[in-house]
Design brief:
The chain has 477 residues and is α/β, with parallel strands linked by helices. It has 14 helices and 24 strands. Its EC number is 1.8.1.4.
Length: 477
């Protein structure tokens, strides 16, 4: 055993949602743990990864501000509230966002301390491997090395750039730059109509930006249920969000004042878009460059993901990888579940992660959320199913608060009545989907959910009514 380095049972590289949760669970199980992460803000360690620093948390903070702004601007009068023309102080809004981020960073640091986890603020990479375990370099102001028998890789992902179009985070933006603008852009172009593009577009649209979205796919959110996609497209276009599908980006040029985007539309016509700011949101790629994978022979696939089995084991003994580094959806909660499961396995316990039950949420207005199978997937598989759908227009709580767009759609097995998928577009979809996740986890039937007494008036009644509708027994529609 080496005497010149500190030795741990587990070293976790990365303190995003997957990494910090894995570290905490491993420590709870009695293992000595070191977590390494290089995020810094204003000279201070900022654990939490992309999610906390430039993703989930800041985007939800800005979405909340945008929703409140729109509520005051467009809806206050309906409630008999007279308000002069509202204005947005972008600097103050960003300060609020940054405060929330810092609170989350500090909360993670507190949890490390509480669980007696050694935290090193630097970049971790493989140095060597031998019978004692893995030697890890920590590139920090005070460069150090640590060693562990087990290593969990949780370095996450980074935005995918277009070829020869680097992010400058001033005029050509990734999610990071788009969540830190100093003023509302007059025009905002977005390449990519995925989750990030829609959420960020929604934020700046509410503040008055003219937003146009270009998407290569032939339709919106092709991975979601088609009926939800159709409804979302209709609502977003009504809100003034301009979207074009089936486009091919030909050339992007920044002249110092505006960005031009030359593209070919779905009919083969050559087009050009001029915008003040351009967000490129075409997906993310695993961040493995800093790990020095070749040093120890860590195997990556042709797309750069770390190859793992169904339990997140890599090709190396006692090396695990989770979250955005591996197959499956790039979602914070998926990474958390994998992190906990890997910690359990290292401690000798059995653990399971059901990727097919991982929910997805888009925090636009209205919100979109789903879990389980889509109708198209069931058709393709040749599985017989039943459909129950209930509109929020028929929900008392939705009418009371003026949020009646959308519906809850439930899919159940035609013979057994087992719930196979739930798809929601409407108010509080991101909260309601939790009930659907529980239903799928316990193998509930539509009848099971229809027999639950929900509070009245509440949005959750829409889920019950959709369950009733599966068997053509809806009460309020």
């Amino acid at each position: 055993m080496r005497e010149d380095v500190q030795v741990f049972d587990v070293v976790v590289i990365g303190a995003g949602p997957g990494g910090y949760v894995a570290a905490i669970r491993a420590a709870q199980l009695g293992l000595s743990v070191c977590c390494i992460d290089d995020w810094m803000k204003e000279g201070k360690a900022a654990p939490g990864g992309t999610c906390t620093n430039v993703g989930c948390i800041p985007s939800k903070a800005l979405l909340a501000t945008a929703a409140l702004f729109e509520e005051i601007e467009l809806k206050a009068g309906e409630h008999g509230i007279e308000v002069d023309c509202p204005a947005i102080d972008v600097a103050k809004m960003m300060a609020r966002k940054d405060k929330i981020i810092r609170q989350t960073n500090d909360g993670i640091l507190y949890l490390f301390k509480k669980n007696k986890i050694t935290f090193l603020n630097g970049r971790g990479s493989f140095a060597t491997a031998d019978a004692d375990g893995y030697l890890i370099n920590v590139d920090a102001p005070a460069e150090t090395k640590v060693m562990a028998k087990s290593v969990i890789l949780a370095t996450g992902s980074k935005p995918r750039a277009l070829p020869n179009v680097p992010f400058d985070e001033d005029r050509i933006l990734s999610n990071s730059g788009a969540l830190a603008l100093k003023k509302v852009p007059t025009t905002l172009g977005i390449i990519g109509a995925g989750v990030i593009g829609l959420e960020i577009g929604s934020i700046w649209k509410k503040f008055g930006a003219d937003v146009k979205v270009l998407e290569a796919m032939p339709d919106l959110l092709t991975f979601a249920d088609s009926s939800v996609t159709k409804e979302a497209k209709k609502i977003f276009e009504k809100q003034g969000l301009s979207m074009e599908f089936g486009v091919r980006i030909d050339h992007i040029e920044d002249n110092g004042e505006r960005v031009s985007v030359s593209y070919t539309d779905k009919d083969g016509k050559k087009c050009e878009m001029w915008v003040e700011r351009l967000l490129i949101s075409i997906g993310r790629v695993p961040f493995t460059a800093s790990l020095d994978a070749p040093v120890v022979g860590l195997k990556l696939d042709e797309r750069g993901f770390v190859e793992v089995d169904k339990e997140c084991r890599t090709n190396l003994p006692n090396v695990w990888a989770i979250g955005d580094l591996v197959r499956g959806p790039m979602l914070a909660h998926k990474a958390e579940e994998e992190g906990v499961a890997v910690a359990e396995r290292i401690a000798g316990r059995k653990a399971f992660v059901h990727l097919e039950r991982v929910p997805s949420v888009i925090y636009t207005e209205p919100e979109i959320a789903w879990v389980g199978k889509t109708e198209d997937e069931l058709k393709k598989a040749g599985r017989e199913y039943k459909v129950g759908q209930f509109p929020f227009m028929a929900n008392g709580r939705a009418r009371a608060v003026g949020e009646t767009q959308g519906f809850v759609k439930m899919l159940a097995d035609a013979q057994t009545d087992e719930i196979l998928g739930v798809h929601i577009i409407g108010p509080q979809a991101g909260e309601l989907i939790g009930q659907a996740c529980e239903a799928l986890a316990f193998g509930a039937t539509a009848e099971d959910l229809s027999l639950i007494c929900e509070p009245h008036p509440s949005f959750s009644e829409a889920l019950k009514e959709a369950a009733l509708a599966v068997n053509k027994e809806a009460i309020n529609f």
